[in-house]
């Protein structure tokens, strides 16, 4: 593993026509403009609004830096006023918010206006990541091994590899999030919480760590609801409009790995009474989506169903 970590990624980047570098998008075309394109080249997504002063400062600067990168990255701009459902699903709480996607996954991001020097460094990191003909960096290879071990249920091996990544890059958001997820998977919720308490406010804005935070919140809530699924289902059978029971059952089901059933419970609440308990069903769905990640098939399907209900 020590031989894998510490190398430098290659250089080079794919070209692009100037018209392809920057485009406006919305919640309907997000998957096509961002997820699909990011399979080939890193895509920066700028969430903004016309009334946002810092957005007006950031917008021209980030466009300038992207153009200077000459095709190494793309920029997609999304007006949150016109794509409120998407902004809610991605938990955009303040703007400007910038996410970077590569190969269908969020890989970096920040919130608030940034100086041009910081933007150049941000774009340069992404450009190296997507350089034409370059294989993954040693750290990326290690992270892939850790994720593979995690997917196979070997949480000890995954933790060890994530830890080695942090020995080389102490602020690697993916490795921090990976360790938190390992602790959650092994039932060490206190350890996961302690790990997150040591994370800087800036790193907490990273999508990978945000997802881990949501997973911890759901695991804690699911732990409280554990053992009550039969009782909650009985309440729903007796009264299908017992939304509190549906909400609690959804959390318990999600924690137990029954994610699709959990999503359906919350969609049922939203369909019947979207305003129930101050929009609790939609807010909980957003937490589910964040915990699963933006490219998870259940996230994509759930978002489509939620958007359909919201605009029906």
From TrEMBL:
InterPro entries xref list: Thioredoxin, Thioredoxin-like_sf, Thioredoxin_CS, Thioredoxin_domain, TPR-like_helical_dom_sf
A Pfam family recorded for this sequence: Thioredoxin
Keyword vocabulary terms for this entry: Disulfide bond, Electron transport, Redox-active center, Transport
Family: Belongs to the thioredoxin family.
Domain Thioredoxin residue range list: 7-128
Protein name from the UniProt record: Thioredoxin
Protein origin, superkingdom: Bacteria
Family annotation (PANTHER family): GEO12009P1 (PTHR45663)
């Amino acid at each position: 593993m020590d031989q894998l970590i510490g190398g430098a990624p290659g250089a080079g980047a794919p070209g692009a026509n100037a018209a392809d570098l920057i485009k406006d998008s919305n919640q309907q075309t997000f998957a096509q403009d961002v997820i699909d394109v990011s399979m080939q080249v890193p895509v920066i997504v700028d969430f903004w609004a016309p009334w946002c002063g810092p957005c007006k400062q950031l917008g021209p600067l980030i466009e300038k830096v992207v153009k200077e990168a000459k095709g190494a990255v793309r920029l997609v701009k999304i007006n949150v006023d016109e794509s409120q459902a998407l902004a809610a699903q991605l938990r955009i709480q303040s703007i400007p918010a910038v996410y970077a996607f590569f190969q269908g996954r969020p890989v970096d991001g920040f919130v608030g206006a940034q100086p041009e020097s910081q933007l150049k460094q941000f774009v340069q990191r992404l450009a190296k990541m997507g350089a034409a003909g370059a294989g993954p960096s040693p750290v990326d290879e290690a992270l892939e091994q850790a994720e593979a071990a995690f997917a196979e249920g070997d949480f000890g091996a995954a933790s060890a590899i994530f830890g080695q990544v942090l020995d080389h890059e102490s602020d690697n958001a993916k490795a921090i999030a990976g360790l938190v997820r390992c602790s959650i998977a092994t039932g060490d919720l206190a350890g996961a919480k302690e790990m997150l308490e040591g994370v800087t406010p800036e790193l907490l804005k990273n999508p990978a760590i945000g997802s881990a935070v949501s997973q911890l919140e759901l695991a804690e809530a699911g732990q409280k609801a554990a053992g009550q699924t039969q009782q909650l289902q009985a309440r729903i059978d007796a009264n299908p409009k017992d939304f509190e029971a549906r909400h609690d059952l959804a959390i318990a089901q999600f924690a137990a790995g029954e994610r699709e059933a959990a999503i359906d419970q919350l969609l049922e609440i939203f369909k019947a009474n979207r305003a129930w308990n101050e929009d609790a069903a939609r807010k909980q769905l957003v937490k589910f989506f964040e915990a699963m990640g933006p490219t998870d098939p259940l996230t994509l399907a759930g978002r489509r169903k939620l958007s359909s209900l919201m605009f029906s």
